[in-house]
């Protein structure tokens, strides 16, 4: 998806696309396919093997429209096994091309023979190089290939905890050996069409795939809904940075947070 051809194929990112969305369209909230695609996978598709970490990860985003209205997205990214032999073969080919280019660049940058080059690498470097090649490679006959995939819930209010619990339960149902009590479509239909938005100042309890989920909406005279855990802010920014950001907010300074 970017100019990252110097990276090995498993470290590159590839173009993603929306596979399906429900409902197809809502009058007051038209589906912006390009925006959702970019915000669900800001770095693009990524591949992994069984040697890499493949734990599911959750992140959120906000779409702000020209009239100032907002919609909130909650995304669970996970990895599923690639069953297409064509894609696995393509990954193998990419690695063969990458290794050939690496070999050519080493030969071009060194006037010595391969024997002298090998002898110039001490045993520790050789071990590290072999380890790096083993963990940063793909062999179609030995490795299992996985690709990233997202499930996303778009809501009018930032019910982060409720959305997170629903997506995690949905993911468990997809990956579980035992099928859930009802078809997956039933749970998706329920949260889209049957679970109402709780009135201001009220709580709502609805059933997910395996466990009940509770969400609460502040009353008119209460602080706005903030369902994001403050602990994560302290872990990400640290105490000193957070105090500095808070000071800048009080002084009405412009703030830009930049991250990968």
TrEMBL record:
The keyword DNA-binding does not apply. One of its GO terms (molecular function) is small GTPase binding. It comes from the Eukaryota. Residues 1-260 form the UDENN domain. InterPro entries: cDENN_dom (IPR001194), DEN5A/B (IPR047278), DENN_C (IPR043153), Tripartite_DENN (IPR037516), uDENN_dom (IPR005113). Gene3D superfamilies: 3.30.450.200, 3.40.50.11500. Keywords: Guanine-nucleotide releasing factor. PANTHER family: DENN DOMAIN-CONTAINING PROTEIN 5B, PINSTRIPE, ISOFORM A. This is DEN5B protein.
